[in-house]
């Protein structure tokens, strides 16, 4: 069976993936190809990439699965929210809901767009409930037979948080907390109030939080420890006439984007992150109680909160945790594509996800052709890992472009910028010369899995950089560039048999320096999507202060 999974809600992060006989073959977000960050348009380039990779034609597909409900479901829920007073029935809100409905209806939820672009197909078009798609994307790749599954995001058509029980390759719905009682919505509203972009910059708030101090009272907006938590959505709404009215009344004016960060902003960020962690913890407790399982699967945009995930992992409440690396909406494609397997009492394929290298690949031939096209000087390397390790140990900031692109928001050693984590100045150097990003956002370490216990207090198995862990106090001065102000790090543990080239690079760096840890950040400039093609990589390399680029078997230096 060939199934195409898709995220297309017109909200953010459109994507597509291909599953063949239960095996996830390929996955890519539209943004990587279109170069429009969080691209919410119909994922036609991503679909094309799926088909090209597998060398199949659209008419060969058996199922086309959308990770979003049929048009009308969100609209009906919105109307209920306005009628019950849960959301303000303003002109703007009503208009937005109506326009959204009409747009999706006109496109048949994406099905009509699909046939317009790819022709008629025998494939069945299927609309999978958004949270079910998230839940499947976490449970079926977790490797757990029995698991509590928690989905938390901004919203589905009607859901904000949902609990599921995965058992024997099947999944049962346990509970839904409907929108607008939404942690994702709460976090996004405050992200915007703090002068950042919603559905994109939430992790800037998370990174800023440790610089703040307790004291900001958010009880007007959220009761995080109630079971279940409660969000007072009416207070959050950015009304057209008086945006962020309640926040402005309590905490002062909204921060102007790009303006200075002051103590007040840090303290609000601290409180928002704290409330999010408490709410997540209370939902996880409820999930464990209801399912009696101590294996936890997480998905949904809120599950990108690596800080909260790390605390859950270290809480002692659970035995094992799997956070699907594309936890946000790009990842619903993975779950939607598996929904057909549940038909007629069927079971999910239950393949463990050990890596996220699911995207396009470029071998040396197209890379060399790009280098020649731009008339660049380059050398062919006999061993890319050794050369890269040598450059890094000499303090160089390195672009690293190898193998299949990662699926999900993190660079995990395929499309990465690498540097020496021992240099206390390296964070500032990379920030200023390469990433041009905010001073408070921490960089993450990639380390050999074998060395995790030596450097970290927990999270010895963290292949996706989606759980934070505390760096051992005696090691914080050893890897200062990847240790956050509160002593935490967001590690990627690299396994030799999963990514041999990247593992060897870290190993070689360790042999030279005694520290088998490197600084790894995504290969992009601030505000841009992670690089996809060799040309993207070269353009980014020459638009930044990187010293060298190891791309396939080639080295480009400045
Ligand atoms: Fe979602």
Give structural attributes.
558 residues, alpha/beta, eight-stranded mixed sheet, five-stranded mixed sheet, 19 helices, 34% helix, globular, binds fe (ii) ion
Classify the beta-strand content into a percent band. Answer: 15-25%
Q: How large, in whole angstroms, is the Cα Rg? A: 23 Å
Bound molecules: fe (ii) ion
Name the overall outline. globular
Query: Helix proportion of residues, in percent?
Result: 25-40%
> If helices are DSSP runs of H or I spanning 4 or more residues, what is the number of helices?
19
Mean pLDDT across residues: 94
| Cα end-to-end separation | 49 Å
Catalogue the unreliable spans. none
Arrangement of strands in the largest sheet: 13-22-21-14-15-20-16-19
Structural class: alpha/beta
Question: Would you report the number of β strands?
Answer: 22
User: What does the main sheet amount to?
Assistant: 8 strands, mixed
Q: What does it look like?
A:
With 558 residues, this protein is α/β, with parallel strands linked by helices. The strands form 5 sheets. Strands 13-22-21-14-15-20-16-19 form an 8-stranded mixed β-sheet, sandwiched between helices. Strands 3-2-1-4-5 form a 5-stranded mixed β-sheet. The protein has a 5-stranded mixed β-sheet with strand order 8-7-6-11-12, with helices on both faces. The protein is 34% helix and 18% strand. The chain has 19 helices and 22 strands. α11 crosses α12 (306-313). A hairpin with a 2-residue loop joins β21 and β22. Fe (ii) ion (FE2) is lined by residues 130, 134, 153, 300-301, 329.
């Amino acid at each position: 069976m060939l199934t195409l999974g898709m995220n297309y809600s017109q909200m953010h992060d459109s994507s597509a993936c291909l599953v063949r006989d239960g095996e996830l073959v390929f996955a890519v977000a539209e943004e990587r190809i279109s170069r429009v960050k969080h691209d919410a348009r119909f994922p036609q380039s991503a679909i094309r990439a799926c088909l090209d990779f597998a060398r199949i034609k659209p008419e060969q597909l058996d199922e086309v699965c959308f990770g979003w409900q049929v048009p009308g479901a969100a609209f009906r829920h919105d109307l209920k929210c306005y009628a019950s007073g849960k959301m303000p029935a303003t002109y703007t809100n009503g208009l937005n809901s109506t326009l959204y409905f009409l747009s999706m209806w006109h496109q048949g939820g994406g099905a009509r767009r699909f046939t317009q672009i790819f022709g008629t197909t025998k494939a069945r078009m299927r609309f999978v409930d958004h949270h079910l798609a998230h839940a499947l994307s976490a449970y079926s790749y977790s490797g757990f037979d029995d698991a509590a599954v928690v989905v938390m995001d901004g919203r589905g058509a009607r859901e904000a948080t949902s609990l599921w029980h995965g058992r024997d390759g099947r999944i049962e719905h346990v509970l839904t907390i409907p929108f607008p009682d939404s942690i994702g919505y709460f976090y996004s509203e405050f992200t915007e109030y703090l002068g950042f972009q919603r559905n994109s910059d939430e992790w800037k708030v998370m990174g800023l939080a440790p610089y703040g101090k307790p004291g900001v009272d958010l009880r007007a907006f959220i009761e995080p420890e109630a079971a279940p938590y409660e969000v007072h959505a009416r207070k959050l709404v950015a009304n057209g006439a008086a945006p962020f009215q309640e926040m402005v009344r309590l905490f002062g004016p909204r921060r102007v984007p790009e303006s200075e960060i002051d103590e007040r902003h840090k303290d609000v960020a601290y409180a928002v992150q704290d409330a999010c962690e408490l709410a997540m913890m209370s939902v996880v407790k409820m999930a464990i109680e209801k399912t009696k399982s101590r294996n936890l699967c997480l998905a949904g945009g809120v599950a990108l909160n690596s800080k909260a995930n790390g605390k859950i992992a270290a809480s002692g409440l659970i035995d094992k945790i799997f956070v699907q690396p594309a936890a946000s909406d790009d990842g619903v494609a993975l779950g939607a594509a598996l929904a057909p397997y549940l038909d007629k009492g069927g079971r999910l394929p239950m393949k463990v996800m050990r890596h996220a290298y699911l995207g396009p690949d470029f071998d040396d031939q197209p890379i060399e052709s790009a280098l020649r096209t731009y008339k660049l000087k380059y050398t062919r390397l006999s061993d890319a890992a050794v050369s890269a390790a040598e450059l890094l140990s000499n303090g160089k900031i390195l672009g690293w472009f190898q193998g299949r692109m990662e699926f999900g928001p993190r660079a995990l050693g395929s499309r990465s910028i690498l540097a020496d984590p021992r240099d206390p100045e390296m964070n500032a150097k990379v920030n200023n010369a390469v990433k041009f990003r905010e001073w408070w956002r921490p960089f993450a370490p990639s380390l050999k899995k074998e060395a995790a216990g030596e450097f970290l207090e927990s999270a010895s198995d963290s292949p996706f950089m989606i759980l934070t862990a505390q760096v051992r106090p005696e090691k914080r001065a050893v890897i200062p560039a990847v240790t956050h102000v509160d002593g935490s790090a967001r590690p990627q543990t690299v396994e030799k048999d999963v990514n041999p080239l990247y593992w060897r690079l870290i190993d070689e760096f360790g042999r030279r320096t005694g520290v088998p840890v490197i600084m790894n950040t995504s290969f992009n400039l601030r505000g841009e999507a992670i690089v996809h093609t060799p040309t993207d990589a070269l353009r980014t390399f020459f638009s930044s202060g990187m010293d060298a680029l190891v791309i396939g078997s080639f080295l480009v230096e400045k």
